[in-house]
Amino acid sequence: MNKIGLFYGPQGGSVEKVAKMIKERLGDRVDLIPVEGATAADINKYENIIFGLSTVGADSWTMDHTSDPWAGIIKDLDKVEYLGKTFALYGLGNQVMYPNHFVDAMGVLGRELLRHGARIVGQVPVADYDYEASEAVIDNHFIGLPLDEDTEPKKTPERLDKWLTGILKEFDEE
Asked: What does CATH list as the number for 4-173?
């Protein structure tokens, strides 16, 4: 059982809350790392990586905004050593207020990881969600775990437990 690097951002909101829920469930196996200030060298220390992020407004939909805590790490992804690593993603969004951009940031990051040849696990079927469109959907599955703490917070623990069970099997395979 290898350590899991859980990189999350922004700090202080639902993304961090879910990061702490994961840490609570997996204990010392997880290192929590705020993404702001993290580098490829930090990611390269781990074979199993979870990225947690949120989609908040148009700035997040493109990830081009320099105030985004993910801006630095996105630019550093070409320095990550992908061979032998397994990635999983979770994304926070609001499917009621932003039904046409639900967890888009997770999709933008996921597609960038795929472009670099990353192995991503933990895809989730779209069937249990009520949204219009999302950049995070590939072949009728979200690229990671979508969570809506604004309108469906009671579903988070069950969704998280099911997702963690699946990704841990994949992490342990490597």
From this structure: 3.40.50.360
